[in-house]
Amino acid sequence: MDVELRGLTKRFGPVVANDNVNLHIRAGEVLGLLGENGAGKSTMMNMLSGLYTPDEGEIIIDGKPVKFEGPGDGIAAGIGMVHQHFMLVPVMTVAENVVLGVEPTGKFGYLDIKKARRQVEEINEKYRLHVPPDELIEDLPVGIQQRVEILKVLFRSADVLILDEPTAVLTPQEVREFFGIVDGLKKAGKAIVFITHKLHEVLEISDRISVLRQGRITGEGDPKTLTEADLAEMMVGRPVSFTTAKETAKPGRTMLEMTDVTMLDENDDMVLDHVSMTVRSGEVVGVAGVQGNGQTELVEAITGLERVASGKIDFDGKDITHARVRDRHKMGMAHIPEDRHKSGMVDSFTIAENMVLNNYYAPEYSRGWAIDWPKVNETAARYCIEFDVRTPSVFLPGGALSGGNQQKMVVARELERETKLVIASQPTRGVDVGSIEYIHERLINSRDEGDGVLIVSSELDEIMGLSDRIYVMYDGKIVAEFDNTGGKADRNAVGLAMAGSFEGEPA
Amino acid sequence: MSEHKGPDLKQVNERMRGLMARTTHGRDDFEDLVIVPLFAVVVALVFGALIMLATAVDLPTIGRSFVALAVGSVGSLSAWSETLTASIPLVLAGLGLGLGFRAGLFNIGAEGQLLVGGLAAVIAGFSFAGLPWIIHLPVTLLVGALVGALYAAIAGFLKATTGAHEVISTIMLNLISYRLLDWLLRQPFIQREGRSDPISRNVADSATLPRILDFIDVNLRLHAGIFVMLAAVALVWWMLFRSKIGFAFRASGENPDAANYAGMNSAFIIVLAMGTAGALAGLAGATQVTGVLGRASPGFSAGIGFDAIAVALLGRSHPIGILFAGILFGALEAGGRQMQVQAGVSIDLIGIIQALIIIFIAAPLLVRAIFPWGFKKRTKRVGDA
């Protein structure tokens, strides 16, 4: 099946989300689609699935123009979406999930689950998906759940598969397997659109690449001749450097020392399992791991947001196991939280207010019981310039900024203080390439000023690129430690440890 | 690469000034804060007329009642005096509720806090008779505020320690306060001598808020509580938007996770915000007993604590908004009495109109649909931008 977008334009009020987009999706091909947040990828995909109707232009399937009137028209025409966030019912089996909404029924509308199972098996065989049809979704690892999503659209006889950031939740090994499946689909004559912001992946798997920036196609090309730098420049509109230039670390005294720290969740399950680690001043320590293996809890333990059940945490030689959040903050701990919207900022507060969210009480911003607002506003304006937060005014609500600028706002607040230890959790999640570069530079800068820096990230590239030392977390435990001086850690070994199948080298 | 080094000082100063320039309030703010409430009032009055029609009130009477409503609320000096007098406790209690809303606390207990605060003020008002008024009056008001604060802090404490929801606990505290009042009013040290019904002794003159317009006409009831009210408006504004603790209140209300992250002590904030709200409600009760009633009797709060919820909502939890909303509700009450007397329309209609105002305030989209020309067309933000 061939799908062509011709001159597709979509406006939301004065905002042009897609501007004269031309795209050709061909059977038996993988089209890589790159773009930063807000470049218009989702708008385009929503027009393809029938959720939005284009203001101008047309969608042509196999030479015939089609008009989608609502959601469901896309899949009916053979265009299937696999979303980044899975839409599966955890307590139902694979087969039940796959047929949900289009269940095969027998007499009097009874559910023919046997037939459903058979159909699922057939697709499973044909594309070698290796999905167990009778398992409950909640018992399956994320990588398999994703294949269930793919199965779902294949079951609805999609010939075009749109995969939205499919590798974001996978370990490096799972990514390999996933690419194998994509290859199989391609050979079977499916057309695949692979949406991502990971440049090396798109180079590896795609037959053609299109880059979207500010609603327009800004570049197209052949992955054989393009480099990551080319793609990044097309995405951002200027040259981007990837490797954060840095000197060899000069580790100093121990800043953070965790000894046998254990944390329980509300069901008394162990979410941190006797974790011990150190971070020294002047070094970047990375914590790698697939999401949900205890990294969130690790950060909560260090920053004081959750109680630990046992063990000891020392910060610059002082016991802070039971210290309050604010005391740790006062001692010089900076914390870039993993989810800025949930906890790092208040959307309705102005940029100025957000810039002092956790140090508004500090003497330099105080006049008695009042906050010295002129001082705060001035500081906020200075931070905005210093950290390149793009806004016309510091009185705009923080929620009005783009993701990258919000994150730079949070990073500015955390790093512009006198700090000794920086805890950066997913510091560049949902942030555009240009801002990623900048945030990385600032983190290295903190290290060079003698801070201990702990980076927790599910992006292995980020961990490999920034860290001087790497811990790998799996199932609430530190399962491996790698020395990454000069980038010498073995990426493959780290990946294996993330999958829990490797007890790492003792460092 | 970024170029954060280098741009010359003048350029940086220029940008700083640009960033710190106060932008005028957006049109959207204006619509939300002024136009919606204004139209809500208009629609509510129209619906009130329709309800009168539906209950077989003839048109001339409806006309007369609206004239009476206007004359009785703003048509004369004495009408203004009545309006403002009625608005004093509404604004005070409304400020407390609004402050609580800002901190994310839905305090329904202003009625109970107002009762206990008012009763405490009465007790202080007759117990320390003989003190010079310059001491006795402030002490009386402060006692009212303090007792209101303590009463509200019970709900705050329960929430902070056990997670008990403040809506439930403040409603229960309201019920307790009614019976507590009934019981206390029969205690010999409170009950007026020679009376068998539950009524308190009179507040001493030295603890009475003086009437401020009696030099014009002795019947003008407006009392010095209006200065207390204005001071409270200014204080709450300062507290919310200028002080450190107000910053923490607002952060906790808008995003409790972010407040936690920022190291704000949520238990302390909950108790303190409830306490402050209770202090303002208690002060409302104290001004009412020392400025208007002169004593306490069962149900002397007259639902002010509940009307104040509406006032706080109508005022969008902003001190200035609450001031105007409180005056509006005071006007409805003063005008409503006149309406009852002159047009023979039940004062219950005023309650209906107040309720309608709140419904329309809570449904701004409805107001926008009824008055499409009053609003600029909104550009929707959809999609992934």
Description of the structure:
The complex is a heterodimer of chains A (507) and B (385). Chain A has helices at residues 41-49, 73-76, 94-99, 113-127, 142-155, 172-187, 199-205, 228-236, 295-303, 325-330, 340-344, 351-355, 373-386, 403-415, 433-448, 460-466, 491-498, and strands spanning 3-12, 15-25, 30-35, 56-61, 64-66, 79-82, 160-164, 191-196, 208-213, 216-221, 254-264, 270-280, 284-288, 310-315, 318-319, 333-336, 366-367, 370-371, 421-425, 452-456, 469-474, 477-483. Chain A starts with a strand and ends in a 9-residue tail after the last helix. Chain A is built from 17 helices and 22 strands. In chain A, a hairpin with a 2-residue loop joins strand 9 (208-213) and strand 10 (216-221). With 507 residues, chain A is α/β, with parallel strands linked by helices. Chain B is mostly helical and 385 residues long. Chain B has helices spanning 9-20, 27-54, 59-74, 77-102, 110-127, 133-162, 166-184, 225-241, 244-254, 256-261, 266-293, 304-314, 319-343, 348-362, 364-370. Classes of the chains: A alpha/beta (507), B mainly alpha (385). At the A-B interface, helix 1, helix 10, helix 11, strand 18 and helix 13 of A face helix 1, helix 9 and helix 10 of B.
Put the structure in a nutshell.
The complex is a heterodimer of chains A (507) and B (385). By secondary structure, chain A is an alpha/beta fold.
User: Major sheet of chain B: size, sense and barrel closure?
Assistant: none
**Which regions of chain A contain 5 or more consecutive residues with pLDDT less than 50?**
none
From the helix content, strand content and strand pairing of chain A, which structural class follows?
alpha/beta
Mean pLDDT of chain B: 88
Mean pLDDT of chain A: 88
Helix count, DSSP H or I runs of 4 or more residues of chain A: 17
Global morphology of chain B: globular
